[in-house]
């Protein structure tokens, strides 16, 4: 029987987990830094819109394209809107897209993968076929196709991102479910009369979660880049909604003629957010399964 | 050897079938009336009805799929509303531009990432190693269009070293006579050094943008793979046999280390083909990516579908090529009975 | 007249840097191998036998460091040599074969080419002649149909054949000294005997010295003329084989012999060695690392151990050794 090389769960529940987390953060200050940044982003997303100095939608053409100054920390765009306010407000939308995409792909991919690993047979084959078909496309191109076909809405962006990441989650979940299929606690649950679906949802999926949580952090970064990329080519959020990608698109033309702040700050925000999620993902990986450190 | 290639090709067929099915579904998934989308925003109800009949949208789904496949087999990808040209023709005309850019970007990426990865592996935990890791993580975090814009700002606007990002050639130059469609190659064949230089100058920034974007996974994988191989038993034997350091690192270690990197190339191509679209927009590059984007903005859907299908087919073909390349290097894959 | 030493190791000490501290893997290890002589380095896992070989060859793990000692081969101190000097000497004068022959060969290069690589590098053979000579080597190590096998890859061969290939690679440039690190572990018993015969025969033909590293004392007894017993990074005894088995002087050696099954022994007569290896990360290690588990420990045992005398035939690192000429029976209490 395959040894369960599962992720070792720290004993003692959440108190021990917290202690372990503190240890990892102390070992690796970069993870601590990423975590602090993450908190900052969440704060910006939650309270940002209430504390920004200017209305992100208020245009003032007299003030158009002013470079960064004391009044406008990030300068103004071509319609005189304050770039700083727009960048902060956009955090909420981009963060929401990231979280929603990740939640959706965890449910879709996680459940499908776990079912495929647990039941095997036709379920496994169908899920495998779907995953293979998705992976036959260059991922961004597929996202483009989906959003083009279904329409430019935030929901469709989230859906497209989830679909495109589905194969990865399904594969990880399936592998874990396969290992645990014959595990003792599953047999025990069966014997006490639990139906297969209950076992899947309440026994196996929660065990798969720690492994997937690392991937989820990385996917959050990818989701933001994806949404930004789609917005950049006009397939994403529509103006005047502030979103980092579309702000870069609008500012691109001005970059060439020297008004760099328009596109730079939203782009930098994008980079910082994605960088933060990637570092967090690495740190989480160290916490959850240090053997996989690259 | 041939059997291996044929076997791999056969495994690619289900993928192709899946791709065709998905693109078919996408054409039918348009919100509202697909016929209206294909007829265009300015179409009259009559025109829409004509389009509907022409596209067979009034027939049952299976029949539609059948005629879709037949059309594809005949090279009929539909017609562009904005240009009136068949989509396949335009795709074929514009493909070399994208291919030249992507291949050059990949080359730049490999030329930087592989030595960086090897260097980092031979000096673990050194400054170079940490720098390599940092560069890799940053590269993955930067949106590719942002990198392109920053490069334009620095090298064109501030320093004036690079030409204006206005496409493949400056207006003063004519493209070389078409042989491959790659300006770099064609200008050499036609003996036009000035054109060659001009094309190269236009290519530098966009290729660099793509290169920076795909650096990260290649560098990371090279480093990890070299680290693993350098501490392997057979490298220890090679050292113990007193083979020259070059032989040990290159002939023994590197060739083995490259195997996982080649496998990674599949994923890298997925990123590159997607990033291509964005880079073409930033640099006004007349490739298939910008073709699709322009069509999108005009609500012209046939080119977009043709584009998605073409990209997917190319990607399947590229993966097949990578598999074959891997088999050429690793005899264990080639010789499995 | 004593034959010139092929390899002379003096006072070799090696440390490893690990996360949990510094491991003093070897301490003051000394022994010599004469030309054409086969000696065995014997000890439990963790006794430092492989580390000694790796240190001499200069292929220690990066975390390891030679802190003292000399290893003189043909006048060159291997431990003080530069990388290019080492690369020159390895394969040509001193060679090594390892356990797990399958993983020790390059998986994507034909065995013929791997042998040819060494021939070209050290054997004064041209690129043109190397493939032919490689086939000759394969024949010399007893591989049937060598011209076909030369084009084979390691994964297409059995463990025994891979070990033969490794021997071919090691001996291609006719070195004067061969180190064989547990070459038969992982092979079945018949193949073990065949491989050891091959090594012995080739060594005799080529007048090559051999250091045979093993944890199997019985095997060492059959194959070598002199045995060096190691324990926890120390050489504890060094004697000709017959003498060692007849009159072991170090308590550890006696226990080892008692614990070694031979055809006459009964399973219940098998003794085990009391205690376990000391933790080599300790900073308070006693000078004799066996003293804490030794039944013959006396007050004098806190002193640093004696050094081998230059002409000693039978060296023992012990202040209270078994009397010379004692029968090899395990001592139950201090005699």
Write structural notes for this entry:
The complex is a heterotrimer of chains A (294), B (337) and C (335). Chain A is mainly alpha-helical and 294 residues long. Chain A has 10 helices and no strands. Chain A has helices at 13-27, 29-51, 83-119, 121-135, 139-150, 154-180, 184-191, 196-232, 244-256, 261-288. Residues 1-11 of chain A have low confidence and may be disordered. Chain B has helices at 2-28, 34-39, 45-54, 61-73, 87-122, 127-141, 144-158, 183-189, 193-230, 233-240, 245-282, 288-297, 301-329, 331-334. In chain B, α10 (233-240) packs across α11. Chain B is globular. The termini of chain B are close together. In chain C, 29% of the residues lie in helices and 22% in strands.
Short description:
The complex is a heterotrimer of chains A (294), B (337) and C (335). Chain A has 294 residues and is mainly α.
Strand content of chain C: 15-25%
- Helical region count of chain B? 14
Give the percentage of residues in beta strands of chain B: under 5%
Q: Name the structural class of chain C.
A: alpha/beta
- Helices and strands of chain B: which structural class? mainly alpha
Radius of gyration of chain C: 21 Å
- Helix content range of the residues of chain B, please? over 70%
Topology at a glance:
The complex is a heterotrimer of chains A (294), B (337) and C (335).
Chain A: H1 13-27, H2 29-51, H3 83-119, H4 121-135, H5 139-150, H6 154-180, H7 184-191, H8 196-232, H9 244-256, H10 261-288
Chain B: H1 2-28, H2 34-39, H3 45-54, H4 61-73, H5 87-122, H6 127-141, H7 144-158, H8 183-189, H9 193-230, H10 233-240, H11 245-282, H12 288-297, H13 301-329, H14 331-334
Helix pairs in contact in B: 1-13, 5-6, 5-9, 5-11, 6-9, 7-9, 7-11, 8-9, 9-11, 10-11, 11-12, 11-13, 12-13
Chain C: E1 5-18, E2 21-34, E3 38-42, H1 49-57, E4 64-73, E5 76-77, H2 83-89, E6 94-97, H3 111-122, H4 130-140, H5 146-149, H6 159-171, E7 177-181, H7 189-206, E8 209-214, H8 217-223, E9 226-231, E10 234-240, H9 241-246, H10 251-259, E11 315-316
Parallel strand pairs in C: 3-8, 3-9, 6-7, 7-8
Antiparallel strand pairs in C: 1-2, 1-4, 4-5, 9-10, 10-11
Helix pairs in contact in C: 3-4, 3-6, 4-6, 6-7
